[in-house]
Amino acid sequence: MWRPELTRVFKDFLDLAEFIRNSKRAIKRAFRSSIWTLSSACLLSLSIRTSLAWAEDDTEVVVNGSQIDRTAGRDATAASTVLRRSDLDSPGATAATVLVRVPGVQVQRSGGGSDLATASIRGTTSAQTPVYLAGIRLNDDLSGTADLSTIPLWMLDRIEVYRGHTPPDADSLGIGGAVFFEPRYPKGPEARAGITAGSWDSRSVYGAAGQGSSRSGAMFALRRESALNNYAYLDNGGTAFTTADDHWVTRKNADQVTTDAWAINRLALPNSGQVVLISNAFDREQGITGLAAIAAEHARAHVTRELLGASSRVAVGCSQLRPCQLTSATSFHRASVRIDDPAFELGLGASALSSTSSRLAQRLDFTWPIADQLSIAAHALAHAETLEVDRPGMHTTNAIRHQGAFGSNFEWKPHDSFTLLGSARLDTQATKAIYHDTAATYPMERIGVAFEIRDGWTLLSNWGSYARPPTLGELYGTSALVLGNSALAAERGSNGDIGTRFRFQGKIATVALEAYVFRQDIDKLIGWQHSSFGQIKPYNIGTARLQGIETAIGIELLSNIRVESDVTLLDPRDVTPNRTLKNDIIPFRSRLVADLGVELHTSHLPDSLGLSRAAVSIRGNHRGSRYQDATGLIIVPHSTTFDLGMNLMLRHLPLSIRASVYNVFNQPSFDVVGYPLPPRSLMLGAEFDWEQHP
Known about the structure:
The chain is mainly beta. A hairpin with a 3-residue loop joins strand 13 and strand 14. The relative contact order is 0.13. The chain has a 22-stranded antiparallel β-barrel, surrounded by 4 helices. A 5-stranded mixed beta sheet has the order 1-6-7-4-5, with no helix packed on it. Strands 2-3 form a two-stranded antiparallel ribbon. It has one domain (3-691): Maltoporin, Chain A (Beta Barrel), CATH 2.40.170. The two termini are 49 Å apart. Helix content is 9%, strand content 53%.
């Protein structure tokens, strides 16, 4: 049963040399597409020397904690989860596949690892969940969502997920929480390289080199990835209740080639200050398969992205004992998507569609530690966003949105066991497009409390209100099938939660537990409805209520066995008064999501094996069924999958060998719109990781 898969994987490894040679042209194209990455690459050696010259004796304190301690430290009162480097190392893993283990998070996928994947938290929509990479918000100005398939796990140090409430330093406050992808910074001379090959002709190679200290450093990295994604799936012919016409077909036109380039520079300043420069160029060319029952064999997409971020932190004035801190963050994000549909298979209304969006953002924060127990902060931010959608032979959509916000927050800690956090903000936005101009102001506030009952046992509670204006794509549409609605009203709502965290550490076992109850009430929630012509159009639902329970437990035994389990129960209801539909469950939400993982690892191995560490893991994930329409007539079935993983570290070489089998029992699973997700897949990878600590 496994011989064809193993033969294909080994053949992929033999082809990697040819793959790397063919990657040179695409890498050069990525360099030309981003002046930001070129500039950072030229500054690599200069920043290394400057970093080492400016480095001081004081070091950056990083608290890693136990592997089962998932609490993120950006906000002491919010429900949060952190995924560390060890959680991201599996070959073939993507941001979508690792985020499913976070309680409260539901991931919507549309096929293979390179296809669109989005995340939503506690039953909200992906447009309500801001996603940040190195502090730069990735949610585009067209749909409001962030594509998780473009996130480079190989460059990350950790992922921080905030459920329901965002920390005060986020530029977008709201009901959908936030996801922060944090890159890793070199802390000494280092060199890294990795290769991966697996099922469906997927392969990747990356390399990185850097130099630095505890507070300063620079790194440059490149990645090349490709896949055919030509797996087989059962096509029901569009007749879900008739099996006579069901037949197996091979997914066509699903190939992709991705090139990614990164440059990171972190410079130390006097008095514990620092400057961070981050740039990225992303380029992907891929086929578009269309819907599961309506295949597209000729449509292609080309996606590019450029990011540039610069942040600084300096101590200013106030007092010598408690200096104030001024933080500045500037970012630029530009993304373009071109879709070619020569056979008119996608219903774009034209043979091609291109969209270009950009965002320039500036934020200033001033923090004043009034006393040891109390600090206040004021912040101001401004965004300028543009969107252009071009359809040959049709009108071009041009839209500009200006946003600004002023706010303040405080943190009061009168006792080591008590923390009170509060924030208030006033957001303004003005949108200008053909035939339609809007302007509005939205107040938002939040208060959070954390009380440590005893060592290791904490109670937490939060309440807040928010508003979200419609995205530019929701207002003006994206194609002939995805229409806009200029009459959309802004979403407004409130959310609250109460929960507890418990951690016990003994001689043979460590236990971490958390449980939350949450509720979110939303007026004018933006949903989507279908017309008889197959078009979809956004509309305001009316009143929605999202409530549920999240639980997470982690157990570590004898430092060799780790067990983790997450369960989320969600009750998403349309509670609009005088509604006419009998079904009141909001579509696209699973009411039960559960994840269970077990890992066995050891560092006590015989020298004859030549290994310094070995680990094996199994993880199961269950996702309940969900409705695909408001009437509840179309149901996406539930799915339960299991994954296996193995990691071997050599004793005398800085080399790791990894293997993963996804969907071991080959269970059918489908995305929210009926896309078939990949069946059983085998991935093999090797990573060279050399780092010299100072």
